[in-house]
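Note to self: user wants both folds in one dump. Writing first protein now.
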Amino acid sequence: MFKEDAATGVAASALSAYLIDNGTESYQEGWHAFQVHQGEAMGRPSVMKAEAYVQLGKVTKTRITGSAVDSEQ
């Protein structure tokens, strides 16, 4: 049995901010999206779009959208 969530939006949002803050690319102002896949090994695949907004060279907000399998199924 897997002891993890099939989709962890908070972690995916934090990852998007981390990738921008610590990546090798320079990001212009605006929204930047990353596609995150999670839960495939446990048979509950999810796909999330994690986005981070860059303003004055810093991430100022994040958002998450996507789909996941209901954990009760």
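First done. Writing the second protein, which came from a different request thread.
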Amino acid sequence: MQKWFLLSSTALIIPSSVLVYLIDPLRYLGVPRRCVQSICVFILGYAFKAVWWVNPQIRVHVQFDANEHGKPACWDDIARTGTAFALNHTSFWDAFEMISITPLLHLMQMRTLMKSSLRNIPVFGGVFDRVGHFPVYFKSDEDGNFHVDKEKQAIVSQHMRWHLRLGGSIAFFPEGTINKTPETLQTFRYGTFATIIEHRLRVYYVVAVGSEKTWAPRMAYGGLPADIHIRIGAYPVDFDKDSSKSVAVGLQKHMQQVRDEIAAEVAAAEEPRRRRKDPVSEAKGAKTLGIAAPHAAREAHATRATA
């Protein structure tokens, strides 16, 4: 499965990346940069979606958390502009996942924040700039070190403000890095939440459970069979009262609750299947607890009757 995932990803994404390189110079011929970026997003969006389509062993289940007004019930209830999507980050699959489940019309308006060093990946790294994503210039690649180069980041912030003023949306990982203990969300970084408050962006959470099963953090590439369960919902923000810190803290608490609920539901659904697959262990467990298995009870009854 993993070899097929690697082969299909390479066959679909690398040619698409090369095509994006060929299209990018159109901006030097007078085609608006934003239009060129949209074309590039269209090409790569379908390439990433295709990776998911040809890897059916990765099963994704999406549920929308409707509020008291019944929204959102589907992607049509989520605005394509002026929106921020916050995702928990447990795997390299997360990028494939978000692109796979998001309609193309939403993707065309969406940009993300990404570690600047990812742009150094041969061939593929250069497409991040061409689709308009925003680099984050960390001073160090050390885990847990989130200090940024303020001078470089100030320029990026200007570009992001321009994108949002034109009606764009953003998707980001508030944990800042892949979480190696996915059961508990890492502390959210406050930086992007200041942008959310400044531009009064609608906030939606995208909480996934199981992504690390198909592509664990320490694996070079993914593709293992997995069921990934995702819940998407709106998180209310009072822009006149809430601060970036209070929104970050509140959203983290809520996303943790959602994650725990998903995990509990998955465990409850898997328990009957586990029992059917392993009846021997169930019988052993019954003996350990001093409970006779059915056949043992019948034998004991027969012995007493003979005596």
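Dump finished. Worth passing along: The beta strands are 58-65, 83-87, 110-115, 134-136, 169-172, 202-209, 226-235.
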